[in-house]
Every structure is written in C-alpha cells, then in structure tokens.
C-alpha cells in the first residue's frame, strides 16, 4: 500500500497542535513521513532513537558556545524535533505504535531538554563568566518540568469533571448504568485546555469564562480553523524559543526570560479557566440535581 500526503494529514495530524508544529514542523515532517513510510522499513522506535541522537548532537554544539556552533545546535534541535514528530505519525499511519515507543519518546524528550539546557548555559557561562546562565538553566528545567506535570494534572481534573457530570445524570435519571461515552465526551475538535461536555444538549463548562471574555470565541475559531491550540506558549514553543530562537539571534538571556514569562502567563490563564470551570461545574451539578 502506498501512502499519500493526504493520508498523512488525515490520519496522523492532530486536530489541534502547537503553532510551531503546525507552521514550522508538520509541512516538512508530513512529507518526510510519506517517503519514509513508502520506501523504507524504518520503525517509529528507530526514528525516536535518531531524534535523540540529533538532540545530543545539538547539546554538543551548544557546549562549544561560539555563535556558529549555536546556529548548528539550533538547526540540529529543530531537526531533532521534526524526527520526534515523525515517529508518532508513522506509528499512527501504519498502526505500529507500542507502549515502549511512547515511553521512549517521553523520556528522550526530557533527557534532550536537560542535556541541551546544561550544555547551553554551561557553554555560555564558561565563555562569559556571567552568573545569570546557571540561574537561567535552573529556570528552564523547572518550567519544562512544571508544564508537563501541570498538563497531566489538568487532564486528570478534566476527566474527573466529566465523570461527575456523568454520575449526576445517571443519579437524576435513576439509571445506575453509566451513560454511553458517545453521549458524554470531549469534543475532539476542542482545545485540549478546554472542558466541553456533550450530552443530549451541550453542557458547557467554559460558560463563565466565555461570558467574561466575549472576544475569546472569535479568536478561538480563527485558531481552530488553522489547527492551532489556544495555548500559544506551550512547552513546545518554550523549548523552541530557548534552543532555537535564542541561539540564532544571539540573545539567549532576553529570549529565554521573555519565553518564561509568557509560559507562566499562559499557565496562569489555564488555572484561571480551570477555576471558572469549577464554578460552572457546581452550577451544572446543582441544575441536574434540582431537575431529578
């Protein structure tokens, strides 16, 4: 079977993704996947190892500290991320994904960030003697860890909110059987950081947030049309700012500080949305119980 670029787009592209991935990675990764899937027997795990090797090569370049090496490190980091996106696409396209592959992908991502951070800040500290670089390194590692841990916890909270709505509807109807998942689910086209439950009628757990920020639905629809998540400074954009934009521009310190500030701002926005969602949840549960 010969795969086409249309197959790759329809079967492997996420409904919503980071804008860096949508604009700067997928156009290249998708085309590389077509050739790799059709002409080679390379497995997703082998691509994961290749991405990891390029990531370590990027760290080695960063350690050299000179601008030409920083450029080489930035290019290798971007190529490493392209391969990192390819392994999942090929796994989904061919149905060859494994639990081990998912674990390797996650662990290698964290090691790559750690190695590149240490190499980048140590190289710059060795050359400049500026104490800001070790502090910058600690900040990058902490924020990378914070974003991924926070994402897991937010997903856990969203699942619990959906379970509570499902349970409340079951109790109100007197039917102990759980509602079919097809009737109660997150809209697959919604942003990952939003909570939207669909039942016989839509139960919107973002109602209060939308009412406070009337411009948000229009922005969200524009981003949605371009496959972009509303979380515009996610862990991916943060990494790319630190390991690509900073080294390429020779402005590692200001770019990293600016990216860190934006990442924290968007994380705070997610927490605020979650707070408002908890109020919406209480309101929805009260309505369901009052109608029983």
TrEMBL record:
The chain crosses the membrane at residues 252-275. Keywords: Membrane, Transferase, Transmembrane, Transmembrane helix. InterPro entries: CDP-OH_P_trans (IPR000462), CDP-OH_PTrfase_TM_dom (IPR043130), CDP_ALCOHOL_P_TRANSF_CS (IPR048254). It comes from the Bacteria. Pfam families: CDP-OH_P_transf. Belongs to the CDP-alcohol phosphatidyltransferase class-I family. This is CDP-alcohol phosphatidyltransferase family protein. It comes from Microbispora amethystogenes.
